[in-house]
Amino acid sequence: GQNIDQPTEMTATEGAIVQINCTYQTSGFNGLFWYQQHAGEAPTFLSYNVLDGLEEKGRFSSFLSRSKGYSYLLLKELQMKDSASYLCAVLDSNYQLIWGAGTKLIIKP
Amino acid sequence: ETGVTQTPRHLVMGMTNKKSLKCEQHLGHNAMYWYKQSAKKPLELMFVYNFKEQTENNSVPSRFSPECPNSSHLFLHLHTLQPEDSALYLCASSQARGAHYEQYFGPGTRLTVT
């Protein structure tokens, strides 16, 4: 079957760096997405990786290793507003998005 | 209005009621999706419409009935629901189905079945 694994919850300190991991086993691979979802709000797109390597967007970076079935989202200079759930999703061979259960990130002052 | 809107935002219904959820996108997209989001579970894709044609129905019970009259509007008709159907129902749209097109989500309808 298809599976996306990510930690259920993580805690970090304001101003620090946190890395949220995502491992996947899917039938085919056409890219990996990261979304952010604040409590009670809609998920919003953060990044898309289809080639190996690191993509940087301001304070957020996303890394992909297709051979390892692994990705991570790196958040730098954490702010209180970064408290949210982070969803990892893989586009499989049928171009269907397979979603992880999300990682709830708690930022402490 | 911009983006993806959903109404109502909250809905409480009994198991014998019939209600409908509405989604509208103002982005000029051609694909629309219904998802179910339950606490601590992955998003569950329910239905996909691409250019107004239903392309996927992921074994969703018949008590959920989608309707897509045009590429901007999507409905989810509900009848004789069960308590386990209580969840957040999210609508999303994208330029087209598949490939690298990111999905834009509405704020969701929080459904409680009593």
Quick description:
The complex is a heterodimer of chains A (109) and B (114). Chain A is mainly beta and 109 residues long.
Number of distinct beta strands of chain A: 11
Order of helices and strands of chain A: EEEEEEEEEEE
Tally of alpha and pi helices of chain B: 0
What's the multimeric state? heterodimer
Could you give a short account of the major beta sheet of chain B? 7 strands, mixed
In DSSP terms (H or I, runs of 4 or more residues), the helix count of chain A works out at 0
Return residue spans of chain A where pLDDT drops below 50 for at least 5 consecutive residues.
none
Instruction: Please summarize the sheet with the most strands of chain A.
Output: 6 strands, mixed
Structure write-up:
The complex is a heterodimer of chains A (109) and B (114). Chain A contains no helices and 11 strands. Chain A is mainly beta. Chain A has strands at residues 3-5, 9-13, 18-25, 32-37, 44-49, 53-57, 60-65, 70-75, 84-91, 97-99, 103-108. In chain A, a hairpin with a 5-residue loop joins strand 9 and strand 10 (97-99). Helix content of chain A is 0%, strand content 57%. In chain A, the strands form 2 sheets. In chain A, strands 2, 4, 5, 9, 10 and 11 form a 6-stranded mixed sheet that branches. Chain A has a 5-stranded antiparallel sheet with strand order 1-3-8-7-6, with no helix packed on it. Chain B has 114 residues and is mainly β. Chain B is 0% helix and 56% strand. Chain B has no helices and 11 strands. In chain B, strands 2, 4, 5, 6, 9, 10 and 11 form a 7-stranded mixed sheet that branches. A 4-stranded antiparallel sheet of chain B has the order 1-3-8-7, with no helix packed on it. In chain B, a hairpin with a 2-residue loop joins strand 5 and strand 6. Chain B starts with a strand and ends with a strand. At the A-B interface, strand 5, strand 9 and strand 10 of A face strand 10 of B.
